[in-house]
Amino acid sequence: TQLLEQSPQFLSIQEGENLTVYCNSSSVFSSLQWYRQEPGEGPVLLVTVVTGGEVKKLKRLTFQFGDARKDSSLHITAAQPGDTGLYLCAGELDTNAGKSTFGDGTTLTVKP
Amino acid sequence: NAGVMQNPRHLVRRRGQEARLRCSPMKGHSHVYWYRQLPEEGLKFMVYLQKENIIDESGMPKERFSAEFPKEGPSILRIQQVVRGDSAAYFCASSPLRSASGGVLTKNIQYFGAGTRLSVL
Which terminus of chain B has a lower count of CB atoms within 10 Å, N or C? Predict the structure, then answer.
């Protein structure tokens, strides 16, 4: 069983549309990270959220951490082709464990 | 400010050979993580190391795989007697002792290298 479930698995939209991807779990996380990965490259950290209910904005990207710290969402406004990539969430269950668990990712394609 | 450096970027091995993957963490980072990724899948944790210590190897296959992070030099992921199923992208990440986000200390702000793509023929 996957500790972090990401949905949808694949998403293909037109430039200018809005979208939301989700990262859900039955476990409580002390922190959660979102990464974006482009083909042939390593994941690049976008944001870390640590407080239940926290909302962080990064230009057209809005990240939200659920009140119970079990889930998170990433919303992209007016998507652009440059947003294309694999979006991964990763959660840290215990601040002393030093290990993150990754979801399987959402593959986003934004068509011009 | 060099990032996490992995080499080689691409590695081709025949079945039965050994593969050695190297990772130099970011300057000042004392934690190293290794992950494996299959096409269109997420990252699967393999091992977490600090200098000269393996902290968590719960994701490492029991046989043929080993990892080290010596006092001097890069971290090494070693795969002996490779098989076709070992073909994947292997990523290394590093993190500092602790990072602050929103006033909360967390260990898991990880910075990734570009990966090594292993192909076993």
Answer: N
Residues of B in Cβ contact (< 8 Å) with A95:
105-107
Minimal-distance CA residue of chain B relative to A32: B108
**B43 vs A contacts (CB less than 8 Å):** 43, 88, 90, 102
Query: What residue type is assigned to position B35 of the chain?
Result: Y
Range B2-25 average pLDDT: 95
Report CA B31 to chain centroid distance, whole Å. Answer: 11
Nearest alpha-carbon partner for B97 in B81, B88, B108, B86: B108
B86 and B120 in contact (C-beta within 8 Å)?
yes
User: Within 10 Å of residue B7's Cβ, how many Cβ atoms?
Assistant: 15
Check if A107 contacts B (Cβ < 8 Å). Answer: yes
pLDDT digits (tens, 9 = 90+) for B24-73: 999 888 889 999 998 777 889 999 999 889 989 999 998 999 999 998 89
